[in-house]
Structures are given as C-alpha cells and as structure tokens.
Amino acid sequence: MQKIDNERLGYLVGRVGNRLSSILYSSVITIFYLNNNLTNVQIGMIWSILLFSQMLTDFPTGSLADKIGRLKVYMLGMIFMGVSYIAYVKFVNNIYICYTFRQLLQD
C-alpha cells in the first residue's frame, strides 16, 4: 500500500469537506430563500450570479496555482469560503441587509 504525502492528504480532506459543505449549503440555502418568500426566478438569479462569478475566477486562480502551487491556492480559497460563511451567518439576521437584498432581487 502506498503512503499518501501531506500535500495530497490535505488536498483530499479539503476537497471532501468542500463537497459536503457545498451539498449541505445548496440545499439549506434554497429552502431558506423559499421560506423568505423569494420566487424561484429570484433564487435562480442568485445561483446564476454565483455560478457566473465562479466561472470568471476559474482562469485567474488556475494561473495563480501554476505559479505558487495548487495547495496554497486551494487553501486560500477555503479560507475565503469560511469567512464568507461566517459573514453570512453573522449578517443574515440583520433586517436591513435582508431588506436591501430582497429589494435588489425584486422584478
């Protein structure tokens, strides 16, 4: 049996954790939006913006990974994702942010 080096193990653990959190986040956040009276069209717009921004950042992060290393860029992405989750949890109960967000998404 082959021994896995630390870089590959870190990447594997991070990747599995990322996929699990993504699945849980996607299902829970959609239900949250539906419970807050957003329409399916508005939820679709939110997901479209998210996926479009992911598409735009794929190429720059790929070239950055070529320069400084895949694991470093991946860990930086995980840190940013963690910060965004913490910010979301902290500010989701703020009525002004929710109201502004809803007003931006209304038809």
How is this structure best described in words?
Helix content is 86%, strand content 0%. The chain contains four helices and no strands. The protein has helices at 6-35, 40-68, 70-91, 95-105. Helix 1 runs parallel beside helix 3 and helix 2 packs antiparallel against helix 3.
Low-confidence stretches: none
Percent range of helical residues: over 70%
Q: Major beta sheet, specifics?
A: none
Cα shape: elongated
Short descriptors:
107 residues; 4 helices
Topology of helices and strands:
Elements: H1 6-35, H2 40-68, H3 70-91, H4 95-105
Question: Can you describe this structure in just a few lines?
Answer:
With 107 residues, this protein is mainly alpha-helical. The protein has 4 helices and no strands.
